[in-house]
Design goal:
Layout: E1 6-15, E2 18-28, H1 44-52, E3 59-64, E4 67-68, H2 74-79
Antiparallel strand pairs: 1-2, 1-3, 3-4
């Protein structure tokens, strides 16, 4: 099988005593569709924010093509090809 292009190892994010993401390890491959699903409050948005650089990790690693990129700001992440889009329901100006 091909090498994962984006990989996390034991990724964690704590907000004080609240553990939002607890030791998440994932692998993302090219030419595949990936989904992150779970109930409200499961940490999906927090994980996405960490992957895009919008939120720092409390611990763990994020590897892009084998390079640890955890802690890079969003502009540096986007220069490496990692980005995100935000849900926007109104894409056209109202009449």
């Amino acid at each position: 099988m091909a090498e994962a292009v984006l990989r996390t190892e034991r990724l964690c994010r704590h907000f004080g005593g609240l553990v939002a993401v607890d030791e998440v390890s994932l692998e993302f491959y090219t030419d595949q569709i990936h989904a992150l699903i779970g109930p409200n409050g499961a940490g999906k948005t927090t994980l996405t924010n960490m992957l895009s650089g919008d939120l720092a990790c409390s611990s763990g690693c994020i590897y892009l093509d084998g390079e640890d990129i955890a802690g890079l700001p969003p502009d540096r992440m986007s220069q490496r090809g990692v980005g995100r889009s935000y849900q926007k329901t109104n894409i056209f100006l109202p009449f």
